[in-house]
Amino acid sequence: MRSDWNDIPDEEFRATFRTWVDQNCPAHLRYMRKQRPLFNEVAEWYHALAAKGWLAPTWPRQYGGMGLSAAKHMIYVEEWGRLGCPRIPDHGIGLVGPLLIEYGSEEQKAHYLPRILSGEHVWCQGYSEPNAGSDLASLKTSAVLDGDVFVVNGQKIWTTLAHCANWIFVLVRTERDSKVRQKGISVLLLDLTSPGVRVRPIENLRWEADFCEVFFDNVRVPLKNLVGKVNEGWTVAKSVLGHERIFLGAPTRPEYALERLRRLAEARGAFDDPAFLSRFARLRLDLYDLGSAFERYAKVLRAGGELGADVSALKIFTTELYQRITEEMLTVAGEEARLSDDLVAGDIEIDAMNLFLDSRAPAIFGGSNEIQRNILAKAVLHLPG
Amino acid sequence: MRSDWNDIPDEEFRATFRTWVDQNCPAHLRYMRKQRPLFNEVAEWYHALAAKGWLAPTWPRQYGGMGLSAAKHMIYVEEWGRLGCPRIPDHGIGLVGPLLIEYGSEEQKAHYLPRILSGEHVWCQGYSEPNAGSDLASLKTSAVLDGDVFVVNGQKIWTTLAHCANWIFVLVRTERDSKVRQKGISVLLLDLTSPGVRVRPIENLRWEADFCEVFFDNVRVPLKNLVGKVNEGWTVAKSVLGHERIFLGAPTRPEYALERLRRLAEARGAFDDPAFLSRFARLRLDLYDLGSAFERYAKVLRAGGELGADVSALKIFTTELYQRITEEMLTVAGEEARLSDDLVAGDIEIDAMNLFLDSRAPAIFGGSNEIQRNILAKAVLHLPG
Amino acid sequence: MPKLMLDDPDGTLVMLRDSVNGFAARFPGPKALRDRRGRGGAMDPQIWSAMAEAGWIGLLLPEDCGGAGLGLREQAVLSEALGRALIAEPTGTASVFAATLLGGASSGAERSRLAAGMASGEIVAVPAWTSGAKPIVARAVNGSIALSGETRFVEAARSATDFLVVAQDADGVTLLSVAADAAAVAISERAGVDGAAIATVSFSNCAVPTERVLSRANRSEDLLRKAILHTRLALAAELTGVASKALELAIAYTSDRVQFGKPIGSFQAIQHRLVDMWIEGEFAAAAVVNAVDALQSDDEDAAQLAVLAAKARAGEAAFSICRRAVHLHGAMGYTDECDIGLYLKRAINLNATLGQPEQLRLEFVERESGLSRGRTYG
Amino acid sequence: MPKLMLDDPDGTLVMLRDSVNGFAARFPGPKALRDRRGRGGAMDPQIWSAMAEAGWIGLLLPEDCGGAGLGLREQAVLSEALGRALIAEPTGTASVFAATLLGGASSGAERSRLAAGMASGEIVAVPAWTSGAKPIVARAVNGSIALSGETRFVEAARSATDFLVVAQDADGVTLLSVAADAAAVAISERAGVDGAAIATVSFSNCAVPTERVLSRANRSEDLLRKAILHTRLALAAELTGVASKALELAIAYTSDRVQFGKPIGSFQAIQHRLVDMWIEGEFAAAAVVNAVDALQSDDEDAAQLAVLAAKARAGEAAFSICRRAVHLHGAMGYTDECDIGLYLKRAINLNATLGQPEQLRLEFVERESGLSRGRTYG
Question: B175 an active-site residue?
Answer without folding.
Answer: no
